[in-house]
Structure formats: structure tokens, C-alpha cells
Amino acid sequence: MKVALDPTPFHHDYSLLELPQVVADLGYEYLQLTPHVDMIPFFNHPKADDALVAKFRKACASAGVGIASVLPVLRWSGPDEDAREAAVRYWKRAIQITVDLGVNVMNTEFSGRPEKAEESERAFYRSMEELVPIIEREGIDVLIDPHPDDFVEDGLAAIRTIRGVNSKNLGMVIVACHQFHMGGDLPAIMEAAGDMVRLVHVADTMDHHRSHGLRYITNPPGNAVRVHQHLKIGDGDVNWDEFFGGLGKLGFYERENAVMVSSVFAENENAHEVSRYQRETMNDYVAKYTSPELLSHQTTRKYHDQH
Asked: Model-level pTM?
């Protein structure tokens, strides 16, 4: 398993090419390349040419940091056909950038609109018809998060939708702080997804259903909004023993292609401190739910690698 940092909190204070060294200084061996204005921005065409892609790959190598995954967020399920067709074009360039970076994992969101779920599903599968052959040819895993306010938000529904594509190259992202929009029963979702879960995001959030639904109040009542947070572990209502224990039951920690990402966005003013705290806390939980036999094997392998 690769443990990575999402460097989004550092985007405004550091340039794209400075991010790998920031990640290394915080003690991470990997980063997740999230939407960045100079690389693959939200919803629009990628802005990096081949020269910048090569420079970023070199910056990662110089810092001793690997790229665990590339995360584009594009409207590939948009019910507006012009937007969907554009998103497919952008996806093709994003895939090429991923290949040129030497990365074989991409993670993303379903996108689309929940109030137009049927139209968005049609758009999603239409996009898949064009993109899946490219994804399979390049040997990339594309892992999808049922993000709040997407046309698929429920965890079990996400499993069915991904399964319907009928490609081993597609899998699922579980974001801990999205669980209260995913149906809430995270153990059942993990069990149903099984090996489909190949990437997870670690951040805490408050359960907006508590206090009779009055934990968060919007006016007027009944607004079609989705509220969640990306807090550090322990600041919200996520059951972390349930989360990390569930991943342990899946054998997640033993998979070479599995990725665990710290994705805290709520405390930019303390981003360095929080990133270190996340790394240490994630490692403690992983050790707690990793079999002694695996820990022994990992220690032996690390010794041989160092000598």
C-alpha cells in the first residue's frame, strides 16, 4: 500500500514544481496529483504541455517522491452533451499526462447531477464506451468516488454502476468523510465492494444527520445542498476503528496497488502540522489492523532493501 498526501492545501503558497519537495519534507513518500491550475484544473482542459509534465516528473524524482495517483475532476457524466463531449476530450489528454508521468492509477468522481440521475447515467456510460478502450490499452486503473452532489452518491449504488461498465480497470474510491452521504453503513459498503476498493481518502467530518438533522442549518429549510468537511482524524464523527478495521479485513494494506491519501482541507493555516499528524495517525491505525505476519514480512523486506 502507498501512503500519499493530497497537497491541495499548499497550492496557493507553493508552485506546482515546488510541491514534491513540500510533500517529501512532511515525511510522505507519495503525493496525489489533484486538480491544479497549471496541470489538470477542475472541469476544464489540461493546461500542461509535455515540457511541464516532464519537469514535474523530474521534480518528483529529485524530491524522492512518487505519484500515487492522478485525480482529474471533469464533467464526463454531465447531462449537457456539449459539456460531456468536451470532458471526454479532456480525459484523453489527462490519461496521456498520467502515462507520461509514469503513473497507472487515476481517481475521480462520478460527476453528473443528482436531480438528473437518469440522464447523467446515460451520459456516464456513453463516455465509458469511448474511454474504457483507452484506459484498458494504457493499463490504468480508474477509481471512482461517489461524491456528494454527484448523480451517484450512495455507496452500494456506486458499486452497481461501476460493475455495469464491466471492466477490471475500473474500481472504487472510498472517502471517509463522504460516508454519511454514502448511506452511512461503511462496513456493508466495504464488504460489498471487496477488491473494488483500491484507493481511500482519510479525512474526518461531522455526521449531518445527527441532532434530528439540525447539526447544520440552511435557510430556507429544504435547500438542495450537500454539507461535509475534510477535517483531521479525530475532529469529527467518523468511526476510525471501523474504517481502518474494515480495510484490514479487505486485505487493503497488503496490496501493492492500494493507495491511502490524507486529504484534509479545513486547516490550511496549520497544513504542515496537520499533514504530519495525519501521516503518524494513519500509520498507527494501519499497524493496529495489520496482521503480525505481514508486519514481520514488511520489516524483513525493508531491512534487505536498505542493506
From this structure: 0.90
